[in-house]
Amino acid sequence: MEKTEENNHFREFLQAQNTEMLDQQVSELNDLIEPMIDCTACGNCCRSLMIVVTDEEADNLSAHLQVSRGDFDGQYLEKGSNGLMILNRMPCHFLSGNRCTVYENRFAGCREFPALHVPGFGKRLFTIFMHYNRCPIIFNVVEKLKEQLSFTHETGNHTNPNFIA
Hints:
Blueprint: H1 4-15, H2 19-33, H3 44-48, E1 52-53, H4 55-65, H5 69-76, E2 77-79, E3 85-87, E4 95-96, E5 99-100, H6 108-112, H7 125-130, H8 136-148, E6 151-152, E7 157-158
Antiparallel strand pairs: 1-3, 2-3, 4-5, 6-7
Helix pairs in contact: 2-8, 4-5
């Protein structure tokens, strides 16, 4: 948590950036960094993410596990007042060690995380920084992004005169 204040300034700085340029930079950094991270050495996402589950995903996984949909829902899901279903436990029921036991049948939210390839990075800053200390991919992308944008904590600003917002 030593970088909390710096990251708060960086988050504010990012909100003022060109969203298309930011999405492109983050996607490129993700493409470089993600292959270098062994997610099975970590598993923090499976310990801390609230995963929304669709009916189709629940159907698919219950069939894969060869349990009735009713039993699956009762054992693994919680339904909110808004009608959304989420996994009813953290860490995830399907985490063993640092590996997903249903990897080929995992939920879309699991497949997508950390979603740095998805457009709209600047609109997800709260979530990104919530997972900054949990996910090595997010941590490294954010730190490299600070370097690319010549961001300094002291000024809360960029120092690169060639930077175009």
